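Hey L., structure's done. Input below.
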Amino acid sequence: MSPSVRVTLPPNLRAMARVHGEVLLEVPGEVTQRSVLDALEAEYPMLLGTIRDRRTARRRPFVRFFACQEDLSHDEPDAPLPARVVAGEEPFMVVGAMAGG
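Output:
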């Protein structure tokens, strides 16, 4: 059985995906940023291109990733996520960054 990972999305992406609250995803294989986002986009194809660039698969500039009170935005996409995320104890959070001055 694949791990079930909790994912939180910012309000605009929740509205686009037509979900309320957290999303629960089955993630086959190792749980990494890439595998979680692949599972998210497979389940909610309307999110394709909103979190990652469709051509390069790189994180969009104003999107950040957090888990277990750590900013994972600059981690390698294939680095394993924290054990508490894999166990479903903590969510993998996709957050819209703020800009301005």
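The helical segments are 11-17, 33-43, 83-86. The chain has one domain: 4-96.

-- N.
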